[in-house]
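Aim 2 progress. For Nephrin, the working sequence is reproduced below.
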Amino acid sequence: MALGTMLKAPLLLLGLLTEGLAQLAIPASVPRGFWALPENLTVVEGASVELRCGVSTPGSAVQWAKDGLLLGPDPRIPGFPRYRLEGDPARGEFHLHIEACDLSDDAEYECQVGRSEMGPELVSPRVILSVLVPPKLLYLTPEAGTMVTWVAGQEYVVSCLSGDAKPAPDITILLSGQTISDISANMNEGSQQKLFTVEATARVTPQSSDNGQLLVCEASSPALEAPIKASFTVNVLFPPGPPVIEWPGLDEGHVRAGQSLELPCVAQGGNPLATLQWLKNSQPASTVWGTEHTQAVARSVLVMTVRPEDHGARLSCEAHNSVSAGTQERSIILMSSLSVPAVPPSAITILGSASQVENKNVTLSCVSKSSRPRVLLRWWLGWRQLLPMEETIMDGLHGGYISMSNLTFLARREDNGLTLTCEAFSEAFTKETFKKSLTLNIKYPAQKLWIEGAPEGQKLRAGTRVRLVCLAIRGNPEPSLTWYKDSRTVTESRLPQEPRRMQLGNVEKSGSIFSRELVLVTGPSDNQAKFMCKAGQLISLLQPPLPVPPTNVTILANASTLRPGDALNLTCISVSSNPPVNLSWDKEGERLEGLAAPPRRAPFKGSATARSVLLQVSSRDHGQRVTCRAHSAELRETVSSFYRLNVLYRPEFLGEQVLVVTAVEQGEALLPVSVSANPAPEAFNWTFRGYRLSPAGGPRHRILSSGALHLWNVTRADDGLYQLHCQNSQGTSEALLRLDVHYAPTIRALQDPTEVNVGGSVDIVCTVDANPILPGMFSWERLGEDEEDQSLDDMAKISKGPTGRLRIHQAKLAQAGAYQCIVDNGVAPPARGLVRLVVRFAPQVEHPTPLTKVAAAGDSTSSATLHCRARGVPNIVFTWTKNGVPLDLQDPRYTEHTYHQGGVHSSLLTIANVSAAQDYALFTCTATNPLGSDQANIQFVSISRPDPPSGLKVVSLTPHSVELEWKPGFDGGLPQRFYIRYEALGTPGFHYMDVLPPQATTFTLTGLQPSTRYKVWLLASNALGDSGLADKGTQLPITTPGGKEEPEDQLPIEPPAGPSGLPLLPVLLGLGGLLLLSNASCVGGVLWQRRLRRLAEGISGKTEAESEDRVRNEYEESQWTGEQDTRSSTVSTTEAEPYYRSLRDFSPQLPPTQEEVSYSQGFTGEDEDMAFPGHLYDEVERTYLLSGAWGPLYDEVQMLGRWDRTPDFLYLRGHLV
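Predicted structure tokens for this construct:
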């Protein structure tokens, strides 16, 4: 005990000194200002930037301002998603980081430090963040990427416009890689503030060397790593160079008659390349030229033979293109020599026709062009020479001669195809021969004509494919081979709807034989027909016999208009067939008996047959087919034809007519019509509830062409019978159709709330309006998060028609809460209705202990509040008694406040100016409602020493430590703390250990020895003393288990060295300890007396104004501690209650009552979302767990552990224990 006192005294002195120093106003020595200031920065759009701000006073509120707009101290900077504060605030780092900068970030910024205990407010110098915006595009005129055609030497204007940029870009225009100097630029405002555009205009005079080069516009900016460019290709037009004639040899212009001359003319350059032409004596001689684009050359070659008359002729070559100012020309004068050489004839011509009929004369003439000297003419037929009838010589040009020879001979078939040649010859032209030839065409007829057809003995029949071939031998011209059928020419022309029965081939030649094919598909008209082939005057004939099947059947009726009950006579007639056919009747597959007529002769050498049938028709026969079949047994072929019955009858509704149509409300409905009538119905008239629907349609209906009634946006009012009148020229019919409109359920009646006494029975009734009404469409749910609470197994579910019931027998508190009636008849959406089940029960006052204590100083200046809480439904009325006598609430010292929260009710009795003589008594709180009453006793006592704690037990035990747990006792109305006294059995002396934090209820005692028996006491103390050691619940024997390892925090104990006996050192230590203990006792006594004096002054020294405030003010804040059971409150002193607030107009904010709870969320069984009036109730709230008898209904108003997060804990005047 002495050792513990010695340790406590220095600690007490140190604590007093620390508390005193803390209360002194010591000026701060930390330097004020910035250790890092922001600087002007420049950033390119899209990049990130950071403005630095280092504050020398960490803990201050720092924020940035942008153009005077404060961004706030939140590091995430709401409203600016790209902004955030970076750095360590503890080190004073508040750097503004901006992601993906854009033009809106171009502004002035400053770092501002708010006023704090460490220093005044500070503002950094303003800095400018300049955001550079590069130009995105260049707009070039003429358009970039194109080819622009200019004429060399002419001036053109080029403009280049940049997109929005900051700063304005520099624009340069280049042609062929050279910068254009004649350029002007204008800077304009862009699409936004701070943006600029630049338009540069250049005057360009292209030259021929610029052809095919690029004109480039470049824009450079500090925001660009490399300039952006736009360009187009220049196509420069310029004239070609002068033409050049390349004369062969040295003597230009000197030629001789008869010389073959080739003169090239070349023109260099030009865009486009030059167009060349040759002139002879100003007359066009040649307009043919070629170009070589790779060498940019145009070339034309004049080829001519020099004639004597060409002496002195002028040859000129002209060159020009589309941009030439004029035509460029190069000329040469021809100088011919005096010698006259021999001139052969330039051509031989044969006059007359080489085509003639055999055995007739052929007359021809051969004429030569002018020659010098004259030529002789001779004739050749094949290799045989013919003698001419006459020869003539005539004068020609330039001293020449023209020769002519006439020939007549007899045309023979053998000469056909031979070559007839006229040949000119002369001694002067021994090395040259001049000829002209033609081929004789001798006409003669074919020698033989015949037809090849089907093999003999083959039996033909109608429909057979037959191939006939006409053949002829020789003939010039080639025979045409024409086919005839019965003297009519066979052609392939036919109408599109006719079948292709004949196919006529072309004339083909094989050697000297000519052939033409006729392919036909035989028909009745081919029976014994004459087929003839003609080639000129030759004719060949073929007449094959042909069996003909029936090809067509005709049906005749005695009446065209039929009505039910009429008789119809049908006659079937088969046209020509060979041999005759058999006729039969059937109606839609049902065989009919008919009357046959004898066969008679028919066209194409065939016979015709007829058969009749008599029918009695009805409306069902309308549209049916009566079929006549003509069958040839010999040919095994059948031809059919049918007659469709047309029976006129009034409308008849078919068996598949729908009589009931189902639709969904707000949807569409189609009332179909399945009716048969002939003619078709003329009108469909619909009637609903006596009103005729307009045939033209309405806002929500339309009658379709089929007669069906189409309705949309259907409502339940459209449900009912619809009458249809269907009419045509034969009569009228009626039908009734029912429209059944299904609609989603709607809850019409749901009693909310539904009340029942505990143990009683009740039905929760849910009545709906719905269609259809289904047996199982009602379902029930109980709202709440606990699945066990949601079970409805103990409740009966009853459904009858549009009413559903949830029947509850022997109602329990646990069944109270929100229920949901769900009705689903298959039409969305299901109906949902909420209803609250209120279970009424008698009051139940909380009884945490047999007797509850509240302590306060009875000095007539303090006040206290007694809290009584009960549960019950319906609402509870509270009454108070003192020592069994009803409390007079008219007494101004007593004030009662009553609060109702669902089934939880509270009464707060505030006692002002507490008097020990009048108020230290037993107060009784009685809670009453129509179902009963209950009460609780509260003992109001004076402040005192704390009660001993209880329930001390070991939580865990190790060789060197033990973890203890206990329950606090009544604190006597003052703050209490705990400390532990323990001893090792067999070892003299006690050890003391303070429990920290002071209000803790668990503590780990360390420094123990293994395998050692200890005895441990737990004591509570407050300003008035300790709880004492008399209570056995505060002491505990323990034995530590054995262990080989020593605890890390325990130093090894060394045995005392030296001889036995009374050592000097222990004696000195003992004397020093006694002296220290004496001093500590003195200091402790002085401090205790001073504390009691301050306590008395705080109780009795209040001014009149302070007393008045205490009466009309209540507590500012309180804290609920759900982890401890203090069962106490502090005395009302100046130190314990520094904050007040007025209760004159104060009304606590209660959560909604049980009747007001939103049942869409249900009762969760937990108190997380409740907002109980903690400010008013915390000072008298209980921390013990409530009995399970309260049930889950009222769990939402539990206040255990509810307000344990309030940072400032204040002890209040009274406390319920």
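Confidence is low (pLDDT under 50) at residues 1-31, 1045-1063, 1094-1217. This observation will guide construct design in the next reporting period.
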